[in-house]
Design brief:
Strand content: 25-35%
Mean pLDDT: 75
Radius of gyration: 40 Å
Number of helices: 1
Shape: elongated
Helix content: under 10%
Low-confidence stretches: 1-47, 274-288
Structural class: mainly beta
Number of strands: 17
Distance between the termini: 119 Å
Strand order of the largest sheet: 4-10-9-6-7
């Protein structure tokens, strides 16, 4: 058997046929090629060894390819994850106080094929197949008050829209701010002790009164029973400023329509109007 054809003094080289040296170098039809243990080794198809400089360039190329693969597939080597879907947006078409037996109109925007409407987070109300947006118009019963959200088949829920279902057969109550004389200036000074009083109709007995700030979503808790309910606000501050309404429920579970809104103005409050004819000011014209 012939001697190995060495490469720059390497101990192991490439052989051609059995008993013959590879006269043309490594990688041209040889049945096997063993790499030397020394600093130089063969490249298939080449008849010369790779020197230190080329070896460094090859290692740098392999390093760059590895970094690119990690950047494309993530540091863990897993497939890149898709960005989290954005939640849809739910809009109320109309007033938040809806009479029992009538339609609630809601519009949901989002990248969905199927839009799902929920009440209080887990009660499914309706499903609409559409593209871009969907209109929901369920007929409401007395048990349908609460916070509505919409969502796609997968992904996070939308913003919540609070709705109160009222019985139009019940007369609305009246909300007032009783203060000791003399009439107080507008806006009320900070630190004023104040309570809001909700009075039901003279011919009705209320099971409970409810105060709201800004709408059905701002319920402040039931109070009282009988003919009126009082809601202490404590020393007034900027956080108390806003429009208030109240309702009452009868013994049969029906909810009255809201009272006319009462605008409470407090010094340094965010809702203090800058125009004298701002909507809501008429209720307070002339003092308390």
């Amino acid at each position: 058997m012939g001697q190995p054809w060495g490469i720059r003094g390497a101990a192991v080289g490439c052989r051609g046929a059995v008993g013959e040296a590879a006269p043309w170098g490594c990688g041209f039809g040889e049945p096997s090629c063993s790499l030397p243990a020394g600093p130089n080794f063969c490249i298939r198809g080449r008849g010369r060894a790779m020197g230190p400089r080329r070896r460094r360039l090859l290692l740098l190329l392999l390093l760059l390819l590895g970094c690119w693969a990690l950047g494309a597939c993530g540091a863990t080597g897993r497939s890149p994850t898709a960005p989290a879907p954005s939640p849809p947006e739910l809009q109320l078409l109309g007033e938040p106080w809806v009479a029992v037996g009538t339609c609630l109109r809601l519009r949901c925007f989002g990248p969905c094929r199927d839009f799902l409407l929920f009440l209080n987070g887990n009660r499914s109300v309706a499903t609409v197949t559409a593209s871009g947006f969907a209109i929901f118009d369920p007929v409401l019963t007395a048990a349908d008050s609460g916070a509505y959200t919409c969502r796609c088949r997968t992904g996070p829920p939308s913003n919540a829209v609070a709705v109160a279902v009222v019985d139009p057969r019940l007369p609305p109550p009246e909300l007032s701010l009783p203060l000791p004389p003399p009439p107080q200036p507008l806006p009320l000074p900070r630190g004023t002790e104040a309570s809001l009083l909700c009075r039901g109709p003279a011919n009705a007995t209320a099971a409970a009164f409810q105060l709201y700030r800004g709408g059905p979503g701002g319920a402040l808790g039931p109070r009282g029973a009988g003919g009126s309910g009082r809601f202490p606000l404590g020393p007034l501050g900027p956080r108390h400023e806003g429009a208030y309404v109240c309702t009452y429920s009868d013994g049969g579970g029906g909810l009255s329509p809201p009272s006319p809104p009462l605008l409470l103005l407090v010094e340094e409050g965010d809702a203090t109007p800058t125009q004298p004819d701002w909507k809501g000011c008429g209720h307070w014209r002339g003092g308390y």
